[in-house]
Predict the 3D structure of the following.
Amino acid sequence: MKNDVCMFCGEPATLLCDGNIGFPPKDDQGRECIDAFHPYTCDAPMCGKCGTQMMRMFVSGRKPYAGVHTVDHCPICLRDLPTYPAHVRRIIYSQDQANVIRAAHWASYQNDHKKRLATEKGGGQQTFDF
């Protein structure tokens, strides 16, 4: 992970959110269904204090897969994502569509740290008067 900061408190981020925002499509005998093994996740950078550990898995075997793996959710996913039967219904067709959904998902959360961040209004376009 790069030098990311937690988007909830501003401390160094050590985790990425594992909340499922959707799944890519898979063709199964002429029917479109979800590819449950490759979900698109929220990927919000967060610190260990802001994240909520949902599950811990102990994987045995050879490195790099062996060890303790955790599933962590950010405060946005805890608040907004539906529970299991409902969250498997969204199909995301491209990485660009996943990035748009992810950005809208992140923008729905406001706290004191995010209010201090400066954003440039209008998308940064400059007009030229000829």
